[in-house]
Design goal:
extended; 108 residues; mainly alpha
Length: 108
């Protein structure tokens, strides 16, 4: 996945540096942050719905759409795949970090 993610990000960065007519990626950059955020939100919702529907193929497609739009947002904000990878490695080193939740007795 790492190679596919890097290739996707590199393509997004190339579209940003070298706009191509008819490119959806270029359209997102032209429309700006609000459009990017709207698409991330839409894809999050569609991922949730596909998951609830139990259709693996549809879910894979929606997750792919979400990853694409998150990658465009990352490029817009100057976040590189290496930044995400480093954070995931940092988090994976943590153990015993389950948050303790307050338990309420609803019978009283």
């Amino acid at each position: 996945m790492e190679d596919a993610f890097k290739a996707l990000y590199d393509t997004i960065m190339d579209r940003r540096a070298n706009p191509a007519e008819g490119s959806y990626t270029c359209y997102l950059f032209q429309q700006g942050l609000d459009k990017m955020l709207k698409k991330v939100g839409e894809e999050c919702a569609e991922t949730i719905i596909a998951s609830k529907n139990g259709d693996k193929e549809a879910l894979v497609g929606e997750i792919s759409d979400l990853i694409f739009h998150l990658s465009v947002l990352m490029a817009e904000k100057g976040i590189r795949p290496d930044d995400i990878a480093a954070e995931l490695v940092r988090r994976s080193a943590k153990t015993g970090n389950l948050k303790q939740f307050h338990i309420t007795d609803k019978n009283t």
